[in-house]
Design brief:
The chain is of the alpha/beta class and 254 residues long. It folds into two domains: 94 residues, 2-Layer Sandwich (60s Ribosomal Protein L30, Chain: A), CATH 3.30.1330.30; 150 residues, SPOUT methyltransferase, trefoil knot domain (Alpha/beta knot, 3-Layer(aba) Sandwich). Strands 7-6-5-9-8-10 form a six-stranded parallel sheet. α6 links the parallel β5 and β6. It is elongated.
Amino acid sequence: MPSLSQSKRVRALRRSKERRASGEFLVEGPRVLGELLRAELPVTLVLYTEAAVAEPAGRRLLELVARSGAPAEQVSEEELRRHADTVSPQGWIATAPQPGWDLGQVAASRVLALDGIGDPGNVGTLVRAAEAMDMTAVVTLPGTADPWSPKVVRAAAGSSLRVPVLEVDPAVLLRWLREEGADVWVAAADGEPVGRSAPAPDRVALVLGNETSGVSAAMREAADRAVAIPMKGAVESLNAAVAGAILMDRLFGG
């Protein structure tokens, strides 16, 4: 049974303010927990139910937890739900330090910047797509969902543990990109339609805004190029995650 202080810490990590203050995030379900453990990343607490370790896969995961040295406590299904952000946390909850990255640790060759994308599912899906497209980093700008919220972490499905994910001020990002000699390309409805025949330059940041308002005025003004997806029919716009994945494939998919 977790202590009162442990329980309070787990529940607090459902709130962005507490995640920022503690530098930790909440992991729900066996998939991301397994990714953390197999990557030998630190885990500070694990809660699990009896049912979660009834099958061989669950017992193997518990063995990984034991080998990691992370504190682990068995709890009831009801208690696990009280700690969870989701209705069904699949028998596992854990807490872990957020991977610490800064711009000096990443290459400016293929950067994805998310500008005001507020939907956590879209943000997590874009982080996952960024890994698939071999992007060097995902940068979140103001107005974008907290990349370490439980919903984003679930949607990223482990990719946020492998792709550097950074929260950066727009002015800092633009200064770094210029210093690194990288272009700034923004996605915009009135941008130049792109196909696979003209791949992106070696050093470029692709900036995506939300479906309704697009990128911020500051990013649009700083852009070297505005790009768009050629579309047919009466479709005016695409979901941000869909549009971002298509653009990354067009520009970086080879």
